[in-house]
Amino acid sequence: MSYNKYYQLDPSHGILTKVGEYLPISQYMSSDSQKIVGGVLVGTGVWVSIIMVMRNVLKGLLSWHGWMSQRHGSVSYATRLWMILVKIFSGRKPMLYSFQNSLPRLPVPSVKDTCRRYLESVRPLMDDEQFERMKGLAKDFEKNLGPRVQWYLKLKSWWASNYVSDWWEEYIYLRGRSPIMVNSNYYAMDFLYVFPTSIQAARAGNAIHAIMLYRRQLDRAQIKPLMLLHTIPMCSSQYERMFNTSRVPGVDTDSLVHVNETKHIVVYHKGRFYKVWMFYDGRLLLPREIEQQMERILADTSEPSPGEEKLAALTAGDRTPWANARESYFSRGKNKQSLDAIEKAAFFVTLDETEQQFDEKNPVTSLDSYAKCLLHGKCYDRWFDKSFNLIVFKNGTMGLNAEHSWADAPIIGHLWEHVLSMDPCKLGYTEEGHCKGEPHNNMPGPQRLQWDIPTECQEVIESSLTVAKNLANDVDCHIIPFSTFGKGLIKKCRTSPDAFIQIALQLAHYRDKGKFCLTYEASMTRLFREGRTETVRSCTMETCAFVRSMIGDETREERLKLLKAAAEKHQNMYRLAMTGDGIDRHLFCLYVVSKYLGEDSPFLKEVLSEPWRLSTSQTPLQQVELFDLIKHPEYVSSGGGFGPVADDGYGVSYIILGENLINFHISSKHSSPETDSHRFGGHIKQAMMDILDLFQLEKKDTKP
């Protein structure tokens, strides 16, 4: 300003002079003041303009997805230049939400392309007559109703951040009236081989402290945004509701309630609920202090009040009875206060009375029991409506149970990776197995939540528990730590590990049931703003041709050729799903629009009613740098899993760990005569080995 004053310069470049012709600025400001204000205004304008230009340039750059078609290990000069530009416009140290306004919107595919790809996906599942009929329905939709509902969908895509996500959350999750336990909630497991401590309170102390540290980083947006190839950002919006969130039941539809900040958690043990403050003297409790609070809960010998022990069964049963009970018995007095404490808590903790862990002497039974316990427990010792439950078992093993509507599994997986990396290595334990540090002498203890549950409500609780137990008892869980080989050998086959596993699942399913089925593989659309998931229909014509060749008497060379075609097809479909050209979310939204318009579409109705008899998902290891599996191969997670989507189908989750381990989590229902999780597991192991044998890697390695 001194420089401008000395040389009689006007930093506003005459703007204030021009404004002064119409407004009496000189009456209120001296010429020096006008120059100062002008300089501030121009500087701010330039700064805002630079930010807007950078943001829009970055959005334009991120709208290009040609990098996905590059072969692994060979990147073109154009793609390298593009990546350099993305890094330049991303800034030096981006924070968690830095890219939210720069991410492109999810595009709406054309009706013609979606119908064509849909017909292609169902061709291997239909005979000629069925296919011709479906072809006619698709053609009629494409010609008549399709363009009209597409127009409304395009209109929505122009003003909504994401044309899918809000409807997906509402209609797929929140409007469901069946139990969310097993049907929607999923679980995550502890380390497979490492048991840091056998003291329940100590394990809870370190885990809770690590989770609260993560929440503090999240509140300050200090968590690094997830970036593919360390360059391409992914949407972070799902992180916003990780903590202090609960699903609240409604008669017709549920809702998600999120509060900005709470300073407590709620702990369940032996039928009692406790409110535990996480802060004292303005600071976060240390691990040993949290352990102390858990010890106090474990030492409490008081009995649950009438109806309290099985109260959480309301969250495990059908949604409408829970909604009616909530309105009738939990809308006033001490019940409302206690329910508020649970729903507003940062998260929910269960100090489980059972012991669960991998037992080398009895690996199958121990892991199957562990999975079932995390998925549903006793049906009344988890608060299934909370965003997530931390479950700590009596012997110190732990895990998570997460509600699905607020976010998808990779989000909770990111938190869980942080907790597992912090717990034994950074926080650690004493030789006796306690948390490091000293207990606090004057800290107030946990606060027992009070309930007054009438007999009528207890009857509703018992009714919900009966529904939940019938569902839980029907679940057949099986976990396979597949260590015969891993992605190390699969890469030597020059095949995508995910494509390899998906094709193996198709081969295993055909051997298991003697037929192909509609297959769901979850893919993410987080390259777009507020993106969630898309479906990869991994049962393709190419995959079916390969599977038939494995059943028939084709030569090894023919099978390898068909395998390569199937893998390339799968990779291409995965790319299409990630870049907004998948078909299932588009078809779903077209169906929603048709219902809003009161139009009945036989094509869409039939498409949306087809059951997914094989539902699959890969659990990605997102923060590889946190785990040195070369030096410490024992620090591998067991991954996580979910319940079967169809009554006569399988749910399969898998996690690729290091170079030599793939964990499979299989679920089905005992009530179906067509399924058996253990039988299917045997077929998966055999299919994996049979496909690997085609490459004859042993012969290649022994060549001189």
TrEMBL record:
The protein's Enzyme Commission number: 2.3.1.21
Catalytic residues (positions): H404 (proton acceptor)
Pathway(s) this gene product operates in, as recorded in its UniProt entry: Lipid metabolism; fatty acid beta-oxidation
Presence of the UniProt keyword Transmembrane in the record: yes
Annotated ranges, domain Choline/carnitine acyltransferase: 106-686
Reactions the enzyme catalyzes: (R)-carnitine + hexadecanoyl-CoA = O-hexadecanoyl-(R)-carnitine + CoA
Subcellular location: Mitochondrion outer membrane
Any GO MF annotation of the entry: carnitine O-palmitoyltransferase activity
SUPFAM superfamilies: CoA-dependent acyltransferases
Domain of life: Eukaryota
GO cellular component assignments: mitochondrial outer membrane
Any single biological process term in GO: carnitine metabolic process
InterPro entries referenced in this protein's UniProt entry, alphabetically: Carn_acyl_trans, CAT-like_dom_sf, Cho/carn_acyl_trans, Cho/carn_acyl_trans_2
Entries under Pfam families matching the protein: Carn_acyltransf
Keyword vocabulary terms for this entry: Acyltransferase, Fatty acid metabolism, Lipid metabolism, Membrane, Mitochondrion, Transferase, Transmembrane, Transmembrane helix, Transport
Membrane topology, as annotated: Multi-pass membrane protein
Family: Belongs to the carnitine/choline acetyltransferase family.
Name of the protein in its database record: carnitine O-palmitoyltransferase
